[in-house]
Amino acid sequence: MSASPTETISASGGVVVRFVSGGSEVLIVHRPSYDDWSFPKGKEDPGEIPPETAVREVEEETGLRTRIVGELGSTEYEVSRGNKKVHWFVMRPVAGGTRFSPNDEVDQTRWVSPEGAGHLLTYNADRELLKRTPLEAHRRNGTLYVVRHAHAIKRKDWNGEDHLRPLTPKGVSESIGIANLLETAQVERIVSSPALRCVQSVEPLAERTGVAIEANQALAENVRPETTATLVKELAGSNAVVCTHGDLMPLIVEDLVVGDHTVDGTSSWPKGSTWTITVDAGRLVSSSYLGPPKGSGPGVP
After folding, report:
1. Which residues pair with 12 in a beta bridge?
2. What is the three-class DSSP state of 92?
3. Which of 29-43, 255-269, 277-291 has the least mean pLDDT?
4. E strands, 32-97, where?
């Protein structure tokens, strides 16, 4: 049934932002039927709430999977069938999704700087929406998962180079448990010590999410503390997984969780355990401890 002249058509959309060297970029789409450039959006399906619509529409129009990091209110305007109200959200890309394929609805997508978007966007309402979107505030917005590597062969039982020590069968089971725990966390990056036991601890997660493992020497044993701190502060505020060693766990956690904030859980970091540290607009809002997975089945605590 078509909307009556007095009915409000509900829709949702997103200002999708990614952060690059030197600044930020937003995603805009070209609609051939209107020959316009705008932000991705679309009408709600029955039973949906605005955030669900926004995530679905962005993926349908662009192929990108996203997570919502902020609300932007709504815009309302008249269309031929009545009033249209669009709920807007700030969104960031996450792993998954599909390669964009031009279609009758959207034939081009483009990442552009905010200044570039201001020139390309067809409608003044979209330009005003962009102006009031605090993009930089969402650079540091997400949860950092700090993982100590799973159980590996003991040093005394290994004759090769230490950084090549692999996981034990127990450690392999724990690595699957880590994947069970974090595969729905909308991870954007997985960064690991180059040590094999660390890389193997997050391999199942990387395989499930499609996020490549980035080996980084700043997470290796016996590095300068400031080197590790610089990397971790860069990652804090994104949805990232960090896999490292026992000697670095207290440095990372205690460096990020400071002041009067009370950490939920224990002050230890056994093998296979995870600390979650959530940041909103650069401000620590929560942290908690998750013990080592007890097995490789679903629902590992």
Report:
1. 42, 87
2. strand
3. 255-269
4. 36-38, 41-43, 66-79, 82-93
> What is the rounded radius of gyration, in angstroms, for the C-alpha atoms of the chain?
22
Q: Tell me how crowded residue 262 is: count the other CB atoms within 10 A of its CB.
A: 7
Are 6 and 81 contacting, i.e. CB atoms less than 8 angstroms apart? no
Global pTM?
A: 0.71
CA distances (Å), 177 to each of 4, 189, 300, in order? 52, 18, 6
Per-residue pLDDT at 300 exceeds 50: no
Whether 269 and 287 have beta carbons less than 8 Å apart is answered as no
Measured from the Cβ of residue 99, the count of other Cβ atoms closer than 10 Å reads 5
The CATH topology of domain 8-138 is Nucleoside Triphosphate Pyrophosphohydrolase (3.90.79)
Burial of 264 (C-beta count, 10 Å sphere; 0-12/13-18/19+): exposed
| Domain residue ranges in the chain | 8-138, 142-290
pLDDT tens by residue, 107-155: 999 999 999 999 999 999 999 999 999 888 787 788 999 999 999 999 9
Residue-wise pLDDT tens digits, 97-106: 788 999 999 9
Q: Does domain 142-290 have CATH number 2.60.40.1180?
A: no
